Amino acid sequence: MDHVPTGGTWSDGNLTFAYSTTGTVNRSTLSATSGKYVAQCLVTAISGNINVGLFGSATDLNSTAASIYYRSTGEKVINGAVTAYGASYTTNDLIRIEADFDAGTVTFFKNNVSQGAISYTLSSGYAFAHNNGASTTVKWNFGQVTWFNSETPTTGFLALCQANLTSEVVT
């Protein structure tokens, strides 16, 4: 995962991040512009607010432009605009993100329960991402291990890993 600015500690092969300050944004190293991809983010400790979702790969990590997040308070955040969305989440909740780049939708799941599909306009490649939350720890799964809690992604969604990407969709 890529991150800016400093404000926490990476472990577990850069898949677990423990925040020490707020404002840190982290995104997956790989991003895509087409296809259907899935990732999981397990919140193992939370203090304050955290956002989990997609971030434009060409966007400065300090910007809210080109971002689609599911906030721990239950709202969705699209390009910085906050609106009502789904259930709140906290410590030990598992957030699954299914991004259909071809259809222009992203669906967030809390503990395997869909919070509803969100439509958006894809302007660049997007990467899975999280931000904020001092004293918060998250662990990502991009398919490198068995899906957490034995969740099964929706048929047709693939792990965001090099083996599942073609040269046309890697950004």
Tell me what you see in this structure:
By secondary structure, this protein is an all-beta fold. It contains no helices and 15 strands. It has strands at residues 2-4, 8-11, 16-19, 25-27, 36-45, 51-56, 67-71, 75-78, 81-84, 94-100, 105-110, 113-119, 126-131, 137-141, 158-159. Strands 2, 3, 5, 10, 11, 12, 14 and 15 form an eight-stranded mixed sheet that branches. Strand 2 and strand 3 form a beta hairpin. It starts with a strand and ends in a 12-residue tail after the last strand. The mean pLDDT is 81.
Question: What is the fold's blueprint, element by element?
Answer:
Blueprint: E1 2-4, E2 8-11, E3 16-19, E4 25-27, E5 36-45, E6 51-56, E7 67-71, E8 75-78, E9 81-84, E10 94-100, E11 105-110, E12 113-119, E13 126-131, E14 137-141, E15 158-159
Parallel strand pairs: 5-15
Antiparallel strand pairs: 1-4, 2-3, 3-14, 4-13, 5-10, 5-14, 6-7, 6-13, 7-8, 8-9, 10-11, 11-12
Précis, in short:
This protein is mainly beta and 171 residues long.
Overall, the morphology is globular
What's the gyration radius in Å? 14 Å
Low-confidence stretches: none
Alpha carbon gap, first and last residue: 14 Å
The helix fraction, in percent, is under 10%
Find the structural class using helix and strand composition: mainly beta
How large a portion of the residues is in β-strands, by DSSP E? 35-45%
How many beta-strand segments? Answer: 15
Q: Please identify the oligomeric state.
A: single chain
The succession of helices and strands, N to C, reads: EEEEEEEEEEEEEEE
Number of helices: 0
Main β-sheet: number of strands, strand sense, barrel status? 8 strands, mixed
What's the mean pLDDT score?
81
